[in-house]
Design a protein that fits this description.
The protein is an alpha/beta fold and 451 residues long. It has two domains: 6-177, Enolase-like, N-terminal domain (Enolase-like, domain 1, 2-Layer Sandwich); 193-443, Enolase-like C-terminal domain (TIM Barrel, Alpha-Beta Barrel), CATH 3.20.20. 39% of the residues lie in helices and 19% in strands. The chain has helices at 61-64, 71-91, 99-120, 129-150, 168-172, 222-229, 243-264, 282-295, 297-301, 323-328, 340-348, 362-374, 388-400, 411-414, 420-423, 427-430, and strands at residues 6-26, 29-45, 50-58, 193-199, 233-237, 270-274, 303-307, 331-333, 353-356, 378-381, 407-408, 436-437. Helix 3 packs antiparallel against helix 4 (129-150), helix 6 (222-229) packs parallel to helix 7 (243-264) and helix 7 packs across helix 8 (282-295). The model has no long low-confidence stretch (mean pLDDT 97).
C-alpha cells in the first residue's frame, strides 16, 4: 500500500455526436460520424485529498466491433450497454490503488459483463474484447488524469516505485519480476514530434479527383494538405483485396508527394501502410511489396512500417506468418493487440511491432509498451480519429514512450469541429504548420486535458 493510492469517489459520463466533414473508409465501410464519450471522475487519497479527472474517447465501433449482421447502429448500441456497465462497476469499486492497479483488477470484470450482455441481448455477434477495452478506456484515462492532478504531477511522472506498489511482474508475469514501468517511459515529453497524416481510400489526391467540393476553407486534397501542414509523414489506407488498386494508390500518393515536397525543398519524408486486416494472406502483402519496390524503388524506401495486413484473430489465422514480410519492413499488430498473450503470439508469428492506442486504455497501453520494448519490438502510436482530449492523450503517449517516431492525428481532417474547444489551449497540437506537433505542451498536470 502507498499513501499516494487513490480510490474512486464519483464517476459520471456524457456523450456528444459529430458528423465528419468528409467520410473515411475503414475496413470497407464509409464512416461519416462519431460519438464521443466524456468521463468525469472524483478520486481521493488515503489522507482524504481529492481531485477531479477527465477522460474522453471516440466510440470507434466500426473498428472495435466489426459486424455485418448488426450494422453500425447495432454495434454502437451494444457498446453503449458496455459503457453503462463499466460505469456502474467503477462506481461500486472502493479499493485503494494506483490507476493501473484499478484497471488490472477491473479489466477481467469488464470482459465478463460484456460476455453476459452478449448473451442477455442475444447479439448476432458477441461483443469482442477489443470493444470492451474501448468502452473502458475513457474511464481509465479519467483515473490517470485525476491521479496526476491530486499529486500535482504529469501522469508520466507517476509510474515509478514511489507511486506504484508493484513491479511489472505483478501485471505481466514472472518474466518481468523486478522490472519497473518507469524504465520504459519518459517523464518529460519530447519537445516536438512529426505528424502522421492519413490518406484515406476515399480521399482525393489532386484537384482533378474532387467530385463535390466541401468548401469549408480546409484542404480537400493531398496536394493541398502537404503544404498546408508541412507534412513529412503520410499514412496510406489500402483496400487489401485489390492488388492493382493498392499498388496504383501508393504510386499515386508518391507522385503527388514528390511534386509537393520538391516545391517545398523537402528531400526526406515517410509512409506507413495500413491494410486494416483486409489482405487474404501474406502472399498478397509480399506481392504488393515486391511490385512497389520494382515500380517505385525510392517510394519503397520511404515505407516506415506496415499495419495489420491480415485478420485480427491470430489464433484462427496461424498460417499467415509475417517472417518474410518483416524482413522487408516492420509489420505491426493493431486490432490483434489485446494483452500479453496476443503480443507474444504475434512475435512468434513474425510480427516485429505493435501499435499502441489510447482507445485500448492508458493502463493497457503502458503495460504493452513495456512488454514490447522488453521483447525488442518496434512501437508506434495510432489514434482512432481521436479529437480533443483523446488526441491529447494519444499524443502524450507517443511523446513519453521512447522510440515512437511520430503522432497520428486524423481528427483535424475528418472531424475538426470536435477539436474547436481545445485549439486555443493547445495551439501547438491542433495548429500544425511545419509537419510537427509541439508535444512539450503535454507535460502539464494529469493528462493535460483540464476540465
Amino acid at each position: 500500500m502507498k499513501p499516494t493510492d487513490i480510490r474512486i469517489r464519483e464517476i459520471r459520463f456524457e456523450s456528444e455526436d459529430h458528423l465528419y466533414r468528409t467520410p473515411i473508409k475503414f475496413g470497407g465501410v464509409a464512416l461519416d460520424r462519431a460519438t464521443i464519450v466524456n468521463v468525469h471522475s472524483l478520486v481521493e487519497t488515503r489522507s482524504g485529498k481529492t481531485a477531479r479527472g477527465f477522460g474522453s474517447m471516440t466510440l470507434g465501433n466500426v473498428w472495435a466491433y466489426p459486424s455485418k449482421k448488426m450494422g453500425y447502429e447495432g454495434t454502437l448500441a451494444a457498446l453503449r450497454v458496455v459503457i453503462d456497465r463499466v460505469a456502474a462497476i467503477m462506481k461500486d469499486y472502493h479499493e485503494f490503488g494506483h490507476p493501473i492497479d484499478i484497471a488490472h483488477a477491473l479489466e477481467p470484470v469488464f470482459h465478463r459483463v460484456a460476455a453476459e450482455e452478449s448473451q442477455r441481448l442475444a447479439l448476432a455477434d458477441p461483443i469482442p474484447p477489443l470493444c470492451t477495452l474501448l468502452a473502458a478506456s475513457p474511464f481509465d484515462a479519467a483515473l490517470h488524469d485525476a491521479f496526476g492532478k491530486v499529486h500535482g504531477l504529469n501522469c508520466f511522472s507517476t509510474y515509478g516505485p514511489e507511486f506504484m506498489s508493484h513491479d511489472l511482474g505483478h501485471y505481466l508475469g514472472e518474466g518481468f519480476k523486478g522490472d519497473r514501468l518507469d524504465r520504459y517511459v519518459d517523464k518529460k515529453a519530447k519537445a516536438r514530434m512529426p505528424l502522421y497524416h492519413l490518406v484515406g481510400a476515399l480521399d482525393p489526391l489532386t484537384a482533378a479527383e474532387v467530385v463535390k467540393p466541401i468548401g469549408d476553407g480546409l484542404p480537400e486534397t493531398l496536394a493541398e494538405w502537404i503544404p498546408f501542414n508541412g507534412l513529412t509523414h503520410l499514412k496510406i489506407k489500402l483496400n487489401g483485396d485489390d492488388l492493382g488498386w493498392d499498388v496504383e494508390r501508393v504510386i499515386g500518393v508518391n507522385a503527388v508527394a514528390e511534386i509537393e515536397q520538391k516545391k517545398r525543398g523537402v528531400a526526406k519524408w515517410h509512409y506507413s501502410l495500413d491494410f486494416n486486416e483486409k489482405c487474404a494472406n501474406v502472399a498478397y502483402l509480399l506481392e504488393f511489396l515486391r511490385t512497389i519496390k520494382e515500380r517505385i524503388p525510392a517510394g519503397f524506401e520511404k515505407i516506415q512500417y506496415i499495419e495489420q495486413p491480415t485478420k485480427r484473430d491470430l489464433k484462427a489465422d496461424r498460417a499467415n506468418v509475417m517472417h518474410e514480410a518483416s524482413k522487408l519492413r516492420p509489420v505491426v499488430i493493431d486490432e490483434s493487440l489485446l494483452d500479453l498473450e496476443s503480443l507474444r503470439l504475434a512475435k512468434e508469428m513474425g510480427y516485429t511491432g505493435a501499435a499502441l492506442k489510447a482507445c485500448k486504455g492508458q493502463s493497457q497501453s503502458l503495460l504493452m509498451a513495456a512488454a514490447a520494448k522488453k521483447d525488442g519490438m518496434f512501437l508506434c502510436v495510432q489514434d482512432l480519429t481521436c479529437p480533443g482530449a483523446s488526441l491529447l492523450q494519444s499524443a502524450s503517449l507517443a511523446a513519453h514512450i521512447p522510440g515512437i517516431a511520430a503522432i497520428e492525428a486524423n481528427s483535424r481532417q475528418y472531424c475538426p469541429a470536435a477539436n474547436t474547444p481545445w485549439v486555443a489551449r493547445f495551439p501547438g497540437i491542433f495548429n500544425v504548420t511545419d509537419g510537427t506537433m509541439e508535444t512539450a505542451l503535454l507535460d502539464g498536470v494529469g493528462l493535460g486535458a483540464v476540465e
